[in-house]
Amino acid sequence: MTELAAFVVIILSAGIAAGTPILFGALGEIFAERSGILNLGVEGMMLVGALTGIVGGLATGSAVFGALAAMAAGGLLSLIHAFISITLRGDQVVSGLALTIFGAGVSAFLGFPYVNVPAPKFSTMPIPMLQSIPFIGPVLFEHDATVYLAFVLLPVCWFWINKTRPGLHLRAVGENPAAADALGVNVTVIRYVYTVVGGALGGLGGAALSLAYTPGWIENMTAGWGWIAVGLVIFAAWNPWRAAFGAYLFGAISRVVFDVQMLPTTHLPQLVKVLLLPEFLRMMPYAAVVIILIFASREAVRKRIGTPAALGQPYTREEAEA
Amino acid sequence: MESSAGRLLAGLRGFSVRLEPRLEVRRWLRYAVPLASLAVALMLGMVPMMMQGINPITGYRDMVLLAFGSAYGISETIMKAIPLMLAGLGVALAFRMLVWNIGAEGQLYMGAFASCLVAYTLPDAPAWALLPAMVVAGFAGGALWGAIPGALKAFLGVNEIITSLMLNYIAIQWVNYLVIGPWQDPSSLGFPSTPRLSPSATLPMITQAWYLPTVVFLVIAAVVAVYWIVRRAHSSREKLEIGISFLCLAALSLGSIWFLGGRRVHLGLVLSLGAAAVLWLLLSRTRWGYEIRVIGENARAARYAGMSLKRNIILVMLVSGGLAGLAGMSEIAGNLHLIKRMFSPGYGYTAIIVAWLAKLNPWGVILVSLLLGGLYRGSDAIPGAPKALGMMLQAVIFFVLIGGDVLVRYRVRWGRGA
Amino acid sequence: MEDASRFAIRMEGITKRFPGVVANHSIDFSVLKGEIHALLGENGAGKTTLMKILNGLYQPDEGQIWIDGRRVTLRSPRDAIGLGIGMVHQHFMLVESHTVAENIILGLDTPRFSLHLGQVENDIARLAERYHLQVDPKARIWQLSVGEQQRVEILKALYRGARILILDEPTAVLTPQEAEELFKTLRSMVSEGHTVVFISHKLGEVMSVSDRITILRRGEVVDTVFASQTSKEDLARMMVGRDVLVRLRKRESEPGDVVLEIEGLSALSDKGLEALRDVSLTVRSGEILGVAGVAGNGQRELAEAIVGLRPVTRGRISVAGTDVANRSPREVMDRGVGYIPEDRMGSGLVVNLSVAENLILKCYRDPPVCSGFFLDGDAISAHAEELVQAYDVMTPGIDTRTRLLSGGNLQKLILAREISSQPSLMVAVHPTRGLDVGATEAVRGLLLEQRDSGAGIVLISEDLEELLSMSDRIAVLYEGRVMGVVPSEEARVEALGLMMAGTAAEEVHGE
């Protein structure tokens, strides 16, 4: 029984650690999408963030500055997307895809000399007192700084979006930009700001990966986690808390997959043995995304949870007339 | 946050960039802007090259020379372009209907898997039976893999962008499993792969021996063209078009045999060109193509006209995935002759860029594929992470062209205040 | 200028160009403090553009603006609000998923950061009471009726301290009775010192409510007159530019067999609420059944249910004897039903395809356009040439992209396509909305021609005059129910208005 409890603690704690990079990406995407900008470039921004984190960390000798550099890089990258989709009114799906390809390419090209170079990282900082709470302590309070940052960021994001004036304006711009514009809310500025904030959080997600969860740079190290973050936003119905639940769940799944490989398999039937091969286990998180999206879209139909009404649509005042 | 950003932008207040839609697009802009965009993109691409300590001028020179500087280089470029053409055609078809299939990479792997499944199960079959079966299997493999996100979107409204992408990772892991599992060639220990395909399971290369059948084919085509010009064509313009098309076909086919004969370029090139022709006919001249265009432009009008969105989403994903599957099949059966882990250097993703740069036009896909195939080939001239350089440059070209496209469609007005 | 401070608004030499059109050409417009000033003109005369300039949404290319005697530059709606100008747009600018209070404080500076809405809600309630604009501040917009949403819009302007209120076609979405209520509110606002500008194309209400009237035609000012010194006929002439023949040459109808019979029909709206309840209607060949009602009372759902675009939860729709409820649009179409949808660009046409390609939208599967799997280019061109000729569609050519055509020609294109399929039943939704007088006449003429040649027509419109002049019988929808069907010769505007507000026909006639 205690063994099982210990196993659960390990899974939950590891799930939170693994889910944190995804969560940053998802929170950033929630901001961008709430303002009406669909940014499919999360994967690219996370990759660039991951590399910049390493480079920045090496240059300054501090993981904190590495993470800040990663945020700047993610924000800068999303600025391209913002320019194309807001000012140039380009297709947001296509621009986001380009961003992902660009991020993957540029990080692999520039990151070549940094592969597996040891760099500063965020080390585990158990929180005194709280860590000794049974069960909860080891699950929640024996992590590195990025995980705690996510804990702090979650309620802040939720409060910001739902309970503040800037949040009200953010939601209005994503739902009905014409209405917001008619009341003097600057749609363009808000969309730029939140797209860039979203990019910065995406970059931070990358840094959380390369400076904390799996320290070091490897080409294409996000392996689709940025895309999982985008998928989670749909699952989460644009709600930070649900996004956190989803991200930690995926963290846990990817960790369970890892642990299961260690189990003794000799006495299991052949088919199960095959399914427990690493290749199949590695499919699980991606398959889980597909399955969870199926359920999420059924729920969305039933409860009529709406996508932000203006998501993906460029806004311009004069188009109505022209 | 918002207000501080507002203050930050206070200097810009009243200063505005306005885009006015052009009623008529000027012809020269349509060609000048993409060319200028390409030049700008290549200039931007210099920045990361310099960051890596590479002289961009000599770098580009080496790339161009490697990709297009010799007959051998060109034939290798075409080898890279073939999978891009097939997968790009598939993506273009789906995008035409605003179905965002970004799972071409996975569909490509599944096509390779399915065609090899046929090849390995029927090792003794003769080439004339085996190759068509492999083509069918490759198409089917990709088609079924593409149909999954298609069906999920059509019936359950699940976002196809995410699902088709997730399936890429699953397909790659599946092929990995085969390569280091049941299909592994025991002798390929260091770098696992499947056994070599038998000669009857590989696509034949273009050789001088093709002259004879090609000439026969061209004679038949000439007869058809003359019949068409005399009997069916209504305007002199149409007659001219048919005539020119025939001459192009003849020059292209004989020219490529002369130029490529005896090099590594394989039947996949013919397959790609054929697919482009079929797709072009399909989109512009058939009922189904009309439905695809109407749905892509205005789904509500399509619904009212009685077109079934669900049926078309699934059909389009089947064909789109099938073409990507063919890309995988031709890459394995024509080029590699065995499956390795991660055998595609992201052809399925580049296909997205190919399709978009080609404005979703089938013949455009062929041209853009040759260009980006050159980028793949040429970037081998750069030390470090050449594959990544290719990807990066593709994306830069892509970004700049999206921006350039705006200049074609809109007139940009700069102004303060009024 | 005798006394500049008398004017609340003065606009001089305002010109605004859009690609391909001059929406406002050198317009002079002024409004006195404390008056109700009507801006009268046809669709496309430039009324809304002028007011959007005044509201800071558009910047004029030329011209100057004074508010309360001060020269101003209006760069954004925020500037306009700062000067006490509030605008109620024709299409409400409300965030549907937000509450009334959230909508009202959108874009303001207080409360500055944290949103405790209790105080705000109290203020709104007090304001609402003062101006008789009752609405629940906590309600979400999508739960409100159209009339209530309009009140929210007005409250939004008043909450911002607007002294100049601009209303764009405010009565288009109201019943005559609700409109009367609105006018009372406007008068009480004026008596408290506010200034009101309202945009309209309805002569009657302009005459009865406003102090002065400015008439716009094709982007230019025709004249500004006192309501007390003019007549409907004068206004109409100025608005249209010639004497208007309101009478249509309409023959006596000769109703034949039943072409459409609807029994006990119920259907849901997009939001999943019941939009049609137990609707029963009959249309015979050779007659026009008008459907009246305030916007959003089930008209759109009714049309969509008939043509197969909307699932039906209960009831029968028989077209020429066969039940087509819940059949696909294709099957309905094949039984001889034509459809002129409400949004021409949205579901009627594919604007990025050519004129010819749009004309085959309904017949692309049938010979001669289609043989087997292939489309026949020659047949498509011939078909298009013929229809463009016959219906007098002004287009540079049949290969022109449809988006380049004007509104009237777009509508003719749809009519050409639908009529050419020789429907026995035609469903027309707002067929003349947004068209100029010439195109309106053409469209009405074509519909009447269809009737005379034996088609049954369901004409859904919010324009009572159009319904009265076109239809043989008029059905009134209210909250998805049929309040009654009356022959149009016997119908009176007041009675229809009561029915549109939810009074059953029997009660109306009982009075």
Draw up the topology in text:
The complex is a heterotrimer of chains A (322), B (418) and C (511).
Chain A: H1 2-34, H2 42-60, H3 63-87, H4 92-111, E1 125-126, H5 136-140, E2 142-143, H6 145-163, H7 165-175, H8 177-182, H9 187-213, H10 225-235, H11 240-260, H12 270-275, H13 278-303
Antiparallel strand pairs in A: 1-2
Chain B: H1 2-8, E1 15-21, H2 27-51, H3 56-68, H4 71-96, H5 104-121, H6 127-156, H7 160-180, H8 211-232, H9 236-260, H10 268-285, H11 287-297, H12 299-304, H13 309-336, H14 347-357, H15 362-378, H16 386-409, E2 410-416
Antiparallel strand pairs in B: 1-2
Helix pairs in contact in B: 2-16, 3-4, 3-15, 4-10, 4-13, 4-14, 4-15, 5-6, 5-7, 5-13, 5-14, 6-7, 6-13, 8-9, 10-11, 10-15, 14-15, 14-16, 15-16
Chain C: E1 7-18, E2 21-32, E3 36-41, H1 47-54, E4 62-67, E5 70-72, H2 77-82, E6 85-88, H3 100-105, H4 118-130, H5 146-159, E7 164-168, H6 176-191, E8 195-200, H7 203-209, E9 212-217, E10 220-226, H8 232-240, E11 258-268, E12 274-284, E13 288-292, H9 299-307, E14 312-319, E15 322-323, H10 329-334, E16 337-340, H11 344-348, H12 355-359, E17 370-371, E18 374-375, H13 377-390, H14 407-420, E19 425-429, H15 437-452, E20 456-460, H16 464-470, E21 473-478, E22 481-487, H17 493-500, H18 505-510
Parallel strand pairs in C: 3-8, 3-9, 6-7, 7-8, 13-20, 13-21, 16-19, 19-20
Antiparallel strand pairs in C: 1-2, 1-4, 4-5, 9-10, 11-12, 11-14, 14-15, 17-18, 21-22
Helix pairs in contact in C: 14-15
Uncertain runs of chain A are none
**How many strands of chain C?**
22
Radius of gyration of chain C: 24 Å
**CATH fold group of the largest domain in chain C:** Rossmann fold
Order of helices and strands of chain A: HHHHEHEHHHHHHHH
Beta-strand segment tally of chain A: 2
- The backbone outline of chain C, from C-alpha atoms, is globular
- Cα shape of chain A: globular
Q: Which oligomeric state applies?
A: heterotrimer
The structural class of chain A is mainly alpha
What does it look like?
Chain A is an all-alpha fold and 322 residues long. Chain A has 13 helices and 2 strands. By secondary structure, chain B is mostly helical. In chain B, α6 runs antiparallel to α7 and α15 runs antiparallel to α16. Chain B has a two-stranded antiparallel ribbon with strand order 1-2. Chain B starts with a helix and ends with a strand. Chain C folds into 2 domains: 238 residues, P-loop containing nucleotide triphosphate hydrolases (Rossmann fold); 145 residues, Rossmann fold (3-Layer(aba) Sandwich). In chain C, strands 6-7-8-3-9-10 form a 6-stranded mixed sheet, with helices on both faces. A 6-stranded mixed sheet of chain C has the order 16-19-20-13-21-22, sandwiched between helices. A 4-stranded antiparallel sheet of chain C has the order 2-1-4-5, covered by helices on one side. The longest helix of chain C is centred in the middle third of the chain and has 16 residues. In chain C, α14 runs parallel beside α15. Helix content of chain C is 33%, strand content 26%. Chain C has 511 residues and is of the alpha/beta class. At the B-C interface, α11 and α12 of B face α10, α11 and β18 of C.
